[in-house]
Specification:
heterodimer; A: six-stranded mixed β-sheet; five-stranded antiparallel β-sheet; B: mainly beta; seven-stranded mixed β-sheet; four-stranded antiparallel β-sheet; globular
């Protein structure tokens, strides 16, 4: 069946290093992908999104890479800071199929930034 | 500032009781969603609405119901609470056609 999954449930990085969080998806019809950050006790917050007609998109300190060939998505965080410690979710859907399919979320990766 | 508010933040209830979780948004978004979050399962869709008087079942809708009588509110009702419904519940909203959801802060529900 369709699924969105993450390669690693936890990731620890040193402050100042770059972080890479990975996500795999299985639905070849997916054409919109989004990353959320969830801090403890809070709701998910939008970080960045990307459509399938792009391979890369950059935001402030974050970059999302999309490899449609292997159905893989990654979130790169530059110069990771303590405030980046959170759970990161990827989600996917199709916005061009005409269906009402909603976002499907992965199970999340816990990022811990070490001092 | 526009916001999306969930209440209560924490709730403990007994098995078999009816429980209603509130979600109120001032974004004037047509789309509203309810998700539950459990360890190892991420966020799973319970119900969603595309506008007033419109409701749809999601992936895990059994035991839950919603109603949409106005744009701002989408209350989630557990008809007869079960221990399996112990979870954190998130409400979200978005504009028509938009997949970028804005989430509330969540309600932690414990069924004992």
């Amino acid at each position: 069946g369709e699924s969105v999954g993450l390669h690693l449930p936890t990731l620890s990085v040193q402050e100042g290093d770059n972080s890479i969080i990975n996500c795999a998806y299985s639905n070849s019809a997916s054409d919109y992908f989004i990353w959320y950050k969830q801090e403890s006790g809070k709701g998910p917050q939008f970080i960045i999104d990307i459509r399938s007609n792009m391979d890369k998109r950059q935001g402030q300190r974050v970059t999302v890479l999309l490899n449609k060939t292997v159905k893989h998505l990654s979130l790169q965080i530059a110069a990771t800071q303590p405030g980046d410690s959170a759970v990161y979710f990827c989600a996917e859907t199709s916005i061009s199929s005409g269906s009402a399919r909603q976002l499907t979320f992965g199970s999340g990766t816990q990022l811990t930034v070490l001092p | 500032d526009a916001e999306i508010t969930q209440s209560p933040r924490h709730k403990i209830t007994e098995t078999g009781r009816q429980v209603t979780l509130a979600c109120h948004q001032t974004w004037n978004h047509n789309n509203m969603f309810w998700y539950r979050q459990d360890l190892g399962h991420g966020l799973r869709l319970i119900h969603y609405s595309y506008g007033v008087h419109d409701t749809n079942k999601g992936e895990v809708s059994d035991g839950y119901s919603v109603s949409r009588s106005n744009t701002e509110d989408l209350p989630l009702t557990l008809e007869s609470a079960a221990s399996s419904q112990t979870s954190v519940y998130f409400c979200a909203s978005s504009r028509t056609g938009e997949r970028r959801y804005t989430f509330g802060s969540g309600t932690r529900l414990t069924v004992v």
